[in-house]
Amino acid sequence: MKRLVLTTFVAATLHTSAWSADAPPLDSVKVVAGGYAKQMKSGLIEQMSKNGPEGGIAACSVKAAQLSAETSTQTGWAVKRVSSKARNPLALPDAYEQEVLNGFEKEIAGGKEDASRYEVVREGGLRYARFMKAVRIEPLCLTCHGGSEVPPNVEQKLSEQYPHDTARGYKVGDVRGALSVKIKLD
Predict the structure, then answer these.
(1) Cα 5 versus chain centre, distance
(2) Is the CB of residue 68 less than 8 Å from the CB of residue 36?
(3) How far apart are CA 52 and CA 124, in angstroms?
(4) Close Cβ partners of 110 (under 8 Å, ≥ 6 residues apart)
(5) This prediction's pTM
(6) Which residues of the chain register pLDDT less than 70?
(7) Residue 133 pairs with which residues in a beta bridge?
(8) What is the rounded CA–CA span in Å between residue 155 and residue 54?
């Protein structure tokens, strides 16, 4: 049902050629980003309920990549998760994303509850609308991203799958990374 709602919204309002000169309205971008985030979280919870923490590892790697590809195909926008401490090298931020992530870290450390940014930027001679929203660590995330909370079997699986893993040692509320949406305007 959730995919149907997102697909219907995309088909009805997000035809990218309509915005060849202007960025899409922020509300439209937030609907797509929010839909992605909700599907990601519900998929994670479902997989962990069925398959334990190991299911969560699969949800955050394979399922997240599939969801990013599906959302990008439906919208024509690049939609992904990024982190300075990425497990998967495909989730490493580009220069713009790293700058924004650094700003999010400062904003959250300064007491701000949430952080996001939407702006039009020029990269390589082309204009893009870029939206990013901070992703913060929730209690469920500590199963794989915590310190001593990570069960030994999960720690072993993570070490096997991600031998150079730096995405551990987080606490609830830390900035894990961000959801990044990039929309080519011209």
Answers:
(1) 20
(2) yes
(3) 44
(4) none
(5) 0.85
(6) 1-21
(7) 116, 179
(8) 10
Question: Residue 185: helix, strand or coil by DSSP?
Answer: coil
Question: How many independent structural domains does the chain possess?
Answer: 1
Residue 180 near residue 80 (C-beta atoms within 8 A): yes
| Helix, strand or coil, per DSSP, at residue 127 | strand
Tokens 């992904």, residue located: 80
Are β-strands 126-136 and 78-82 bridged in parallel, bridged antiparallel, or unpaired? unpaired
What's the rounded Cα separation, in Å, for the pair 135 and 104?
10
CATH number at residue 168: 3.30.450
Whether the CB-CB separation of 134 and 108 falls below 8 Å is answered with yes
State the Cα–Cα distance between residues 133 and 137, nearest whole angstrom.
13
Spatial CA neighbour of 179 closest among 118, 109, 89, 107: 118
Range of the domain at 38: 2-184
> Tokens in use for 66?
């599939």
The C-alpha angle with vertex 9 and arms to 18 and 22, in degrees rounded to 5, equals 25
pLDDT (tens digit, 9 = 90+) per residue, 65-109? 899 999 999 999 999 999 999 998 889 999 999 999 999 999 999
* 94's tokens: 């580009």
